[in-house]
Design goal:
With 519 residues, the protein is an alpha/beta fold. The protein contains 15 helices and 24 strands. A seven-stranded mixed sheet has the order 16-18-19-14-13-20-21, with helices on both faces. Strands 10-9-8-11-12 form a five-stranded parallel sheet, with helices on both faces. Strands 1-5-4 form a three-stranded mixed sheet. The radius of gyration is 24 Å and the shape is globular. The termini are far apart. Bound molecules: NADP nicotinamide-adenine-dinucleotide phosphate. The site of NADP nicotinamide-adenine-dinucleotide phosphate has 26 residues, from helix 7. NADP nicotinamide-adenine-dinucleotide phosphate is lined by residues 154-158, 181, 183-185, 214, 218, 231-233, 236, 239, 256-259, 293, 397, 399, 425, 480-481.
Length: 519
């Protein structure tokens, strides 16, 4: 049995003890084990801060961007192996694994290109100097400088590839060493990617670290000038926020957590817009078995369209074969593990107590399985006729192939119901009326990190409700964790400190030289 070693202090280190298993969600076979027992995280963090940080920051942004390009090449060269691991460990079909694996490579390549155009050398100027005294003899210039601590990533199981690299791209480009702690259930793929990049000897020693499992002092060994980026459940985020390093010492903490995302069909819409919504709703229900933080959970339609949309979604769901992703013809694989399956089935049970079941894949015949105790859960579509008196549908995230169709009276009703998610990652809106789309964006933006507007003009070009593009912000307020990631070079802010430098114009002028910027 392979025990996934941890890469810390520039060397591979095995945790002691038997460790925790990494399983195949279809067969139950143990694929590997992880253990972080006995690791010295303090020594590992010191090494990253003291060896790798200065080595990274010796390079310019553009030089570090070139390193990201090299990493992308290594991952591209090993792409087939990553798909194979996903097939065995994540339970996802090839198309769904592509969102993770190719998404990781694309995001790294995006930052390699964006970073290659950065003219700054040591620090980044933020805006122009602001006068603080008469005749401008004393002024204030804001600057961003890379943090000299490390970035700890605590990641969710659903994106073992993209989840690492979408964060690491911005951190490494900023000159900040990275420690990834992947979710145990899918740690194998993250581990393999880190191993390939370490073997390729691209980064300074200690710049990229991985710890599989849960070392005792994962957070204790941090200091106040490190940062943590967490993706996972709101409950775990809440307990981490209570940790003294974060609560007391002020470790910067970014959280991407639960999100009850919406899709809204505009009023008075034509069949085209309804068709676009139906296609996207089905895709989001089934891709990665609905285990995407951005997946559509609530589908809002005008009351007059409720029955037609319900029928259209159900008709499409009927055509999808669910089961072992290794089997020919299977379009939707399994959940990540048996505990997730049980959690999703419990969530379905709760929603069923207060909603109509419009489609239940569990009673359909197109399930392809040879094994009995698997993590496969087919899609379920609920309907709620009276959403105003139904708190659960707006509050409970069922992190699987589950969504609820909801009728609305008028656009204000739809927007206020979407807002009852109390902060979400994304809302998508489908209409061929540009005025309505623009109005919707202005209202939904307050409670959503991203608003995705779809009409016929973009029907073929749009990137999808659930796809997180590096060009756009990923994160949402409130329940979604309050975090921000990606969004082009905005992502670098998390790995920099903002400081207001006050001095004479001559001294402030020297900053422009240090930044090396043309502006
Ligand atoms: P989770 O149980 O919260 O675990 C997330 C990560 O936290 C895992 O690496 C886990 O490690 C670690 N962890 C848990 N307790 C910890 C502790 N006390 N100390 C240190 N680390 C700890 O979430 P999950 O089940 O992996 O993911 C599903 C949830 O994530 C869903 O609710 C979904 O909404 C959310 N999610 C959000 C986003 C987003 O971008 N907003 C993306 C994906 C998922 P172990 O695996 O070793 O337990």
């Amino acid at each position: 049995m392979t025990k996934l070693a941890n890469y810390l202090e520039g060397r591979w280190q095995e945790g002691s003890g038997t460790g925790s298993p990494v399983l195949d969600p279809i067969t139950g076979e143990t694929l590997a084990t992880v253990s972080a027992e006995g690791l010295n995280m303090k020594a590992a963090y010191d090494y990253a801060r003291q060896q790798a940080g200065p080595a990274l920051r010796k390079s310019s942004y553009a030089e570090r961007a070139a390193l990201l390009g090299e990493i992308a090449k290594v991952l591209q060269a090993n792409r087939d192996k990553y798909f194979d691991i996903s097939l065995r460990n994540s339970g996802t079909v090839q198309n769904d694994s592509s969102v993770d694996v190719d998404g990781a490579i694309y995001t790294l390549s995006f930052y390699a290109k964006a970073g290659s155009k950065m003219t700054e050398k040591a620090l980044r100027l933020d805006g122009e100097p602001a006068p603080l005294a008469k005749d401008n003899v004393f002024a204030s210039q804001h600057i961003y400088v890379p943090i000299q601590g490390l970035a700890l990533f605590i990641n969710a199981f659903n994106f073992p590839a993209w989840g690492l690299w979408e964060k690491a791209a911005a951190a490494l480009l900023s000159g900040v060493p990275v420690v990834i702690k992947p979710a145990t259930s899918t740690a194998w793929l993250t581990h393999e990617m880190v191993k390939d990049v370490v073997d390729a000897n691209i980064l300074p020693a200690g710049a990229l670290n991985i710890v599989c499992g849960r070392p005792d002092d994962l957070l204790d060994a941090l200091n106040g000038l490190d940062v943590v980026s967490f993706t996972g459940s709101a409950d775990t985020a809440a307990s981490l926020r209570d940790h003294p390093r974060i609560k007391h010492d002020g470790v910067r903490f970014n959280a991407e957590t639960d999100s009850i995302n919406s899709a809204i069909l505009g009023p008075d819409t034509d069949d085209d817009a309804a068709g676009l919504l139906v296609r996207e709703a089905v895709r989001e229900l089934t891709i990665k078995s609905g285990q995407k933080c951005t997946a559509i959970r609530r589908i809002f339609v005008p009351e007059s369209k409720y029955d037609a949309v319900a029928q259209a979604i159900c008709a499409k769901l009927k055509t999808i074969t669910v089961g072992d992703p290794r089997k020919e013809g299977v379009r939707m694989g399994s959940l990540v593990n048996i505990p997730q399956r049980d959690a999703i089935l419990a969530g379905i049970g709760k929603l069923a107590e207060c909603s109509d079941i419009l489609f239940d894949g569990r009673t359909e015949s197109n399930i392809e399985l040879d094994h009995e105790n698997t993590a496969v859960v087919p899609p379920v579509l609920f309907g709620v006729r009276d959403p105003d008196t139904h708190p659960l549908v707006h509050e409970m995230e069922v992190f699987g192939p589950v969504a609820t169709l909801i009728p609305y009276r008028d656009p204000e009703h739809a927007f206020s119901l979407a807002r009852r998610g109390m902060g979400s990652l994304v809302a998508s809106v489908y209409s061929n009326q540009p005025d309505f789309l623009a109005q919707a964006a202005g209202i939904l933006a307050e409670s959503h990190g991203r608003v995705h507007l779809i009409n016929n003009d973009v029907a073929k070009a749009h990137t999808g409700h659930g796809n997180v593009m590096p060009q756009s912000n990923h994160g949402g307020p409130g329940r979604a964790g309050g975090g921000e990631e990606l969004g082009g070079l905005r992502a670098l802010r998390f790995y920099h400190r903002l400081s207001a430098i006050q001095g004479s114009p001559e001294v402030l002028g020297k900053l422009t030289q240090a930044s090396g910027s043309e502006g």
